[in-house]
Write a structure and sequence with these properties.
The chain has about 70 residues and is of the alpha+beta class. About 35% of the residues lie in helices and about 10% in strands. It is globular and about 35 Å long.
């Protein structure tokens, strides 16, 4: 979601999205287009909280590892 914009990610949570962002390795398409939208884990947690939700870390199978 971060690729679409931080505010869009917040709004999407209200519409049922269950994943705010992910890790991309060697993300070349956006970089080639000179579009770089980086953030930190702390900023993502703040954005999730500001949207009224509780951030959590999960596995790829959606098992919750930690609730922040």
């Amino acid at each position: 979601m971060v690729l679409r914009g931080k505010r869009t990610g917040q709004v999407a949570l209200s519409w049922g999205a269950d994943d705010f962002g992910g890790t991309l390795f060697e993300e070349n398409v956006h970089a080639a287009a000179d579009y770089v939208n980086k953030t930190t884990v702390d900023e993502i947690m703040t954005l999730i909280r500001d949207a009224g939700f509780t951030p959590a870390q999960r596995t790829t199978d959606y098992d919750i590892l930690k609730i922040y």
